[in-house]
Amino acid sequence: MMANVKVVLVSLLVFVAISSCNGGHDQLSPWFYRKSCQQFENIVRSITWSKVAANPNFAAKLLRLHYHDCFVQGCDASILIDSTDGNTAEKDARPNRSVEGYEIIDEIKAKLEEECPDTVSCADIVALAARDAVSYQFGRSMWLVFGGRKDGRVSLATEATRDLPSGGANYTTLRDQFAGLGLNYIDLVALSGAHTLGVAHCVVFARRLNFTGKGDIDPSLDPAYAEFLKTQCPSSTPNPATTVELDESSSISFDSHYFVGLRHKKGLLGSDAALLTDRRAAWVARSFQNFHVFMAHFGQSMKKMGDIGIKTGNDGEIRKNCRVINA
Question: Under a CB-based contact definition with an 8 Å cutoff, are residues 144 and 30 in contact?
């Protein structure tokens, strides 16, 4: 067993090394703020860790905020922009109405404006806060975050509705969406592992509990688990505010338990179960039951995701207020 794990780990690490050589950080740098704002990382870590210490659920919220930002318009903090009378912004699109953590980003930004005015982008704050939120439980940074992103000037709810992956998507749809952003099937499985944290509202997976409209369950769900879900989300009295852990009994610990549950047909979302319908993705999911294997690639996939659609130079700006495009 140990020999097999070592082979899997070596294989994935080789893939990681090849991927890192091929892509993306040429416009960003891990030392971007070394001279312009030396306290950048310390400030983000201090505030983020204090929030997660007080409420462990913030780890999932800040990680999700980064995901939802990067998949629409790229990693440019466009999700932070407030709607106006003339524009409905990303944060008010239906898939984003349950996204939280904005106030933490505001607090970090305010502190950085005191320390280093007009220097640190909201996009870089979102990326680093996501890393630090996950890293809190380990007491150390779990992957390297590159800086240098500019903030975007466009935020449209219609794009969020169109571009964000659906919790009910099949594997082909997910694979194609991720591939269109430069992410491969291993990245898809690794980034899905973020579902080891957080919760989902009943409406997101309700169809799996009434699969054909006749009260039957999705055959890719464990029957006993499905019965438990029905007690939490009864179809006769749905409550839009009711949530269920994405990773049963492990929703505030970043670990590889999600992949163990997936093996036992306890992936909460249809998009989770979809990973097992592809031979290669299923193999990766099995290997990710080992936390060290999972974490070796999760950090790399997060860095690749952080490269999506980045804006540099005159393509973007440094917002004074993360919620408002500069005048």
Answer: yes
With a CB cutoff of 8 Å and minimum separation 6, the contacts of 139 are none
Let me know if residue 177 belongs to a domain: yes
**What CA–CA distances, in Å, run from 224 to 217, 229, 256, 297?**
11, 9, 22, 32
Closest Cα to residue 23, out of 191, 122, 146?
A: 146
pLDDT in tens, the chain (327 residues): 444 444 444 445 444 443 443 344 568 999 999 999 999 999 999 999 999 999 999 999 999 999 999 999 999 999 999 999 999 999 999 999 999 999 999 999 999 999 999 999 999 999 999 999 999 999 999 999 999 999 999 999 999 999 999 999 999 999 999 999 999 999 999 999 999 999 999 999 999 999 988 889 999 999 999 999 999 998 766 677 899 999 998 999 999 999 999 999 999 999 999 999 999 999 999 999 999 999 999 999 999 999 999 999 999 999 999 999 998
- What are the CA-CA distances from residue 274 to residues 56, 188, 298 (Å)? 28, 11, 19
* DSSP output for 194-225: GGGS-EEEHHHHGGGGSTTSSSPPPTTS-HHH
Cα–Cα distance between 305 and 71 in angstroms, integer? 8
CA 168 to each of CA 42, 92, 103, 208: distance values in angstroms, whole numbers, following the listed order = 38, 20, 29, 9
With respect to residue 258, please indicate whether it lies within any of the assigned structural domains. Answer: no
CATH of the domain at 181: 1.10.520.10
Query: Which residue type, as a one-letter code, is found at position 143?
Result: W
68 catalytic? Reply is: yes
- The count of domains in the chain is 1
Q: Is residue 290 one of the residues assigned to a domain?
A: yes
Catalytic residue among 68, 195, 257, 297: 68
Residue 303 CA from chain centroid, whole number: 12
Domain housing 295? 2-194+281-315
Domain-embedded: residue 181: yes
User: Which residue, among 134, 69, 170, 162, has the nearest Cα to 291 in the 3D structure?
Assistant: 134
